[in-house]
Amino acid sequence: MKNIPLILNLGKNLTEYAQQTADHRTFTTLINQQFPTDLLQGHKEGCKAEPHNPLKYHGSYLRRAVIDTEGQTHQVSIHRVYCPCCSQTWRVYPCILTPGKHYDSYVVQNTVEEILSYEQSYRATTRHQSQLTSSGQVKPNAFTHARTPWNWVVWLGQSSLPLVLLACGLKPPIYGVEDEKFLKQNRQKSYVIGLVEHQFDLLWWADYVFSTDQGSLEKSLGELSAILKSVEAEHYFKGITTDSWKATRNAFLTLDPRTKLAECLLHPMLKFEIEVKRYARSEKLGEEVVELLLEAFWEVLLAPDAATWEVNLTELEGWEDFQHPILAARLASLRRKQEG
Question: pTM score, two decimals?
Answer without folding.
Answer: 0.50
